[in-house]
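Quick one: sequence plus zinc ion SMILES, need structure tokens.
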Amino acid sequence: MHELSIAHSLIETVEAALTDKPDLRVTAVNLQLGVLSGVEADSLRFCFDIATADTRLVGAKLVIETVPARAFCPVCDRDVSPAAPHWYRCPECGGSCGKLSAGRDLQIASVEVLDPNEETIDEAPLA
Ligand SMILES: [Zn+2]
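Reply:
Sure thing.
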């Protein structure tokens, strides 16, 4: 299952980033998901809940922010947001756009962690 292996790799990424902070509890993972990533948000959320069960991310919420497609239209001379089903056509003028500059994203924007010693919730960028 595609989404399940993605869920596992998200968990691995977070665990790797927090190896030196074993006390922190992860409460949420904020993910940016492009509309063209081919990943179904509901399915990924479901798989994430299963995959986190026996990891330190247990109980963490997967918060998915959908990233719209973006491409540069040479006619309009600016970035536009193509939409289904014309991913390579400008929605303003109908001209053809080049490469999409966004829309295939699948990346963790940040994680929210709880420090049980201080009982505070922090938002940490994961880069
Ligand atoms: Zn245009």
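The beta strands are 25-34, 61-67, 70-73, 78-80, 100-102, 106-115, 120-125. Residues 73, 75-76, 80, 90, 92-93, 95 surround zinc ion (CB under 6 Å).
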